[in-house]
Amino acid sequence: MTARLNDRSRKPNSNAPFGVRECQWCGEEFAKRGGSQLFCSDPHKTAFNNLRKERGAQLYDLFVALRYERKLAAGLKVWSLICTMIAHFREEDRQKRSGRRSWMPARTVTERRPYLFNPLRQARKGKKS
Ligand SMILES: [Zn+2]
Question: What's the gap in Å between 22 CA and the centre of ligand 1?
């Protein structure tokens, strides 16, 4: 029972048996082969990542403007545009994907990019570049 309680692969309210996970793309249940497997098949993993690429590309230029063209971004209310865009993506998830999340957990993103926390970056904090 302890293993089941600690199994982070299951959705909180899922009735799926231990070792079974809902595919993050199609929503079908599948027997997971690895601890971090999120998809029932490679094509569904690819489809999920392609959706993220498409949405990320739409957001990228706005985020760069926020960081490097601050006056322009403020004038155009870029942060508000980003939030609106994200709300549209989420609504699309609700309507077309039964509400399944279309993003990776923030913890996964930070774990895959340890360089974001390296001492060199911390040392440069406060210096204008
Ligand atoms: Zn699937």
Answer: 8
Number of structural domains found in the chain: 1
Distance 26 CA to ligand 1 centre (A): 4
What distance in angstroms lies between residue 120's CA and the mean position of ligand 1's atoms?
41
Q: Is the residue at 115 inside a domain?
A: no
88's CB contacts (< 8 A; 6+ apart) are none
| Residue range of the domain that includes 24 | 2-104
DSSP secondary structure string for all residues of 30-69? EE-SSTT---SSHHHHHHHHHHHHHHHHHHHHHHHHHHH-
Q: What is the pTM of this model?
A: 0.73
Mean pLDDT per 10-residue section of the chain, whose length is 129 residues? 40 62 94 84 96 97 96 97 97 95 90 82 55
